[in-house]
UniProtKB/TrEMBL annotation:
<dbReference type="GO" id="GO:0006813">
    <property type="term" value="P:potassium ion transport"/>
</dbReference>
<feature type="domain" description="RCK N-terminal">
    <location>
        <begin position="6"/>
        <end position="122"/>
    </location>
</feature>
<dbReference type="GO" id="GO:0008324">
    <property type="term" value="F:monoatomic cation transmembrane transporter activity"/>
</dbReference>
<protein>
    <submittedName>
        <fullName>TrkA family potassium uptake protein</fullName>
    </submittedName>
</protein>
Length: 144
């Protein structure tokens, strides 16, 4: 019932990437829970999310306490802290989250995330670099 309306998003890690995902979802009128281990970040995002919470997502009990199981789609944007990103992804898949999309920091990280069952792994700099290269060549064709 009301599947579309009740779809719940959560974004873990509110750096440039995660912050941008969160803000865009919220601006589009979706329900989004913003999560960061850093209290100031969590507070800052209370204005850009339905709810925001300070939480270490490598803590399984804490994840369960906020009812993460009710979220259908979770984005993990813990960049630099590869170990935390890996553990968080593992826990989310173990808890049965349907869609777990993760930002990878490097190709090794990307490989591990794939093995853990991440549903989508993005590597923004790498992906965007490729896209730009394609855009450069396609623009050339059009300009010709
Ligand atoms: P960018 O800003 O380009 O996206 P990034 O992906 O490296 O870079 P960071 O600036 O490292 O992003 O931000 C990641 C965020 O994840 C930080 O705000 C950090 O506080 C948060 N974070 C790190 N570890 C955890 C954790 N265990 N649980 C929840 N949030 C975490």
């Amino acid at each position: 019932k009301h599947r579309q309306k009740q779809r719940q998003f959560a974004v873990i890690g509110l750096g440039r990437f995660g912050g941008s995902v969160c803000k865009e979802l919220f601006a589009q009128g979706h329900e989004v829970l913003a999560i960061d281990i850093n209290e100031d970040k969590a507070r800052e995002f209370s204005a850009f999310a339905t709810h925001s919470v300070q939480l270490d997502t490598t803590d399984e009990g804490a994840l369960k306490n906020i009812g993460i199981r009710n979220f259908e789609h979770v984005v993990v944007a813990i960049g630099d802290h590869i170990q935390a990103s890996i553990l968080t992804t593992l826990l989310l898949k173990e808890l049965g989250i349907e869609k777990v999309w993760v930002k990878a920091q490097n190709t090794y990280h990307q490989k591990v995330l794939d093995k853990l069952g991440a549903d989508l792994v993005v590597h923004p700099e790498f992906d965007m670099g490729k896209r730009i290269a394609h855009k450069m060549t396609s623009d050339k064709v059009i300009d010709f």
